[in-house]
Design a protein that fits this description.
This protein has helices at 2-9, 13-16, 20-47, 49-55, 58-80, 100-115; strands at 87-91, 94-98, 122-130, 145-150, 153-158, 164-171, 181-184, 188-190, 203-210, 213-221, 231-234, 237-240, 246-251, 260-265, 272-276, 283-287. It has 289 residues and is of the alpha+beta class. It starts with a helix and ends with a strand.
Length: 289
């Protein structure tokens, strides 16, 4: 008995102090490092969202977080907490056995893929077209289209009854990025052509203005002779004919109407008046003495 006791006391000093913490310490460190890196990646995903989105890396970063957190879960559950899980199956003619940590890791990662739907990499966008008076100035309804140029992908959607054009699936890399937007609607043009608004949220407001109207023609007498220096007045504007009796006026969009009254005056002739359509063919004003 004394000999056995002596043998027990002959253990190395380091072995006498070997406890539970010594067994789980490596796994706890791995778990802690994984969690810290996972939180760091999440912080990058939140604070550098613009840069990651511009590079199209948001999905990849999410998967990195899944892997790190899956590793942390596997280590904590099955090495620190001594939980257990086991899977055994026949694959490719052999036997596949997966221990507890592998199962936990796979559940977290695969679950992350399943819980995030494939269309999470896109977002809906509604573009509202309005006039220069403000967002409530719905000058374009049920006519025209809105065009978005997403790199080499051009998207076209019709304008609805509230001046809206709905784009159901914009790739996430264009969120908070400047995108060329144009509007094609009869009689209107962009108020700020060349502007590239940022896609900050789920809606975008684009201002349009009426196109300027052109009114041109010739002034002559009853014999067909051109009348120079005749005064042509329309929509509060006026101009004179040249040596050949020709005139051309550009009416601002805010003064455009379906028809405008044109008046022509020349010394020695009676005043000529007529209703004209802006942008129509050149008119001929025949003045009488």
């Amino acid at each position: 008995m004394r000999q056995n006791k002596a043998k027990k006391d002959e253990r190395p000093p380091s072995a006498k102090h070997f406890g539970p913490w010594d067994k789980i310490a490596p796994y706890a460190v791995v778990s802690l490092v994984s969690v810290v890196f996972g939180l760091a990646v999440l912080a990058v995903l939140v604070w550098q969202a613009d840069k990651l989105t511009a590079l199209g890396l948001t999905g990849y970063v999410y998967y990195v977080v899944l892997v790190l957190l899956g590793l942390a879960v596997a280590v904590v559950l099955f090495k620190v907490c001594h939980s257990y899980a086991h899977y055994r199956g026949e694959q490719l003619g052999g036997i596949l056995e997966l221990g507890g940590p592998i199962v936990g890791f796979a559940l977290v990662v695969i679950g992350g893929f399943v819980l995030v739907p494939p269309n999470s990499q896109t977002f809906p966008l509604t573009v509202y077209v309005h006039g220069e008076a403000g967002r409530q100035d719905m000058v374009v309804k049920n006519t025209g289209i809105v065009i978005l140029d997403l790199g080499g992908d051009r998207r076209l959607e019709p304008i609805g009854d509230r001046g809206q054009a709905v784009f159901p699936a914009i790739p996430s890399q264009y969120r908070r990025q400047p995108v060329p937007v144009s509007v094609e609607a009869r009689g209107f043009e962009l108020a700020n052509p060349g502007a590239q608004p940022r896609l900050e949220g789920s809606s975008l407001y684009v201002a349009v203005k009426r196109l300027a109207g052109r009114i041109a023609g010739h002034v002559q007498d009853e014999a067909g002779k051109s009348i120079p220096d005749a005064v042509v007045s329309v929509a509060g504007m006026s101009g004179k004919t040249d040596a050949s009796g020709y005139f051309e006026l550009s009416v601002p969009g805010d003064r455009i109407m379906p028809e405008l009254s044109v008046q022509v005056d020349a010394a020695g002739y009676a005043t000529w008046r007529s209703m004209v359509v802006p942008g129509a063919n050149d008119l001929t004003a025949i003045l009488k003495r």
